[in-house]
């Protein structure tokens, strides 16, 4: 588990106190439901600067984690088409699946952190589709 903030807002636009609340309340709810205290977090939209990173680290002991591949699956609707007709990312299910294949088949160094979402049946299906290959390649 990682923290992803309470309201999924841009953290660099927040005051120090608002950042503490965003991270702290999310950590609390994760702990309340799982008994687990997270030690990592991912800022929404990758929006982080040194001030936000310092609050996360110094107040909560959280390491900031960013991705090195974005599937752009956030735009898929339940039928596998685009929920964002004017957006290039994630045009459809096949384009999202096809964007992942070169990363899975690529070098294992420096590693792979894929940004994915569980916003629709199609976006969840993307993961189910490629997970067996991912596992089979030893990731």
Description:
The protein is mostly helical and 139 residues long. Helices cover 42% and strands 6% of the residues. It has four helices and four strands. The protein has helices at 16-34, 50-60, 93-105, 121-136; strands at 40-41, 63-64, 69-70, 114-115. A two-stranded parallel ribbon has the order 1-2. The protein has a two-stranded parallel ribbon with strand order 3-4. Helix 1 (16-34) crosses helix 2 and helix 3 packs parallel to helix 4 (121-136). The longest helix has 19 residues, at 16-34. The chain is globular and about 40 Å long. 19% of the residues are buried.
* N→C terminal distance: 18 Å
> What's the average pLDDT?
89
Principal-axis shape: globular
User: Biggest sheet, in brief?
Assistant: 2 strands, parallel
> Strand share of the residues?
5-15%
User: From the alpha-carbon coordinates, what is the Rg to the nearest angstrom?
Assistant: 17 Å
Per DSSP, the total helix count is 4
Strand order of the largest sheet: 1-2
Estimated structural class: mainly alpha
Spell out the helices and strands N to C: HEHEEHEH
Indicate the percent of residues in helices: 40-55%
Q: How many E-type strands?
A: 4
> Oligomeric state of the chains?
single chain
Low-confidence stretches: none
Protein name: Glycoside hydrolase/deacetylase
Keywords: Hydrolase
């Amino acid at each position: 588990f990682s923290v992803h903030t309470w309201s999924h807002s841009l953290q660099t636009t927040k005051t120090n106190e608002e950042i503490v609340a965003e991270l702290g309340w999310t950590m609390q709810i994760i702990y309340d439901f799982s008994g687990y205290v997270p030690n990592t977090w991912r800022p929404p939209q990758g929006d982080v600067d040194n001030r936000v990173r310092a609050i996360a680290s110094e107040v909560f002991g959280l390491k900031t984690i960013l991705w090195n591949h974005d599937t752009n699956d956030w735009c898929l609707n339940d039928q596998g088409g685009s929920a964002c007709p004017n957006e290039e990312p994630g045009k459809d299910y096949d384009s999202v699946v096809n964007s992942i294949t070169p990363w899975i088949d690529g070098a294992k160094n420096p590693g792979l952190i894929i940004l994915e979402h569980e916003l629709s049946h199609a976006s969840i299906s993307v993961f189910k589709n490629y997970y067996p290959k991912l596992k089979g390649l030893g990731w």
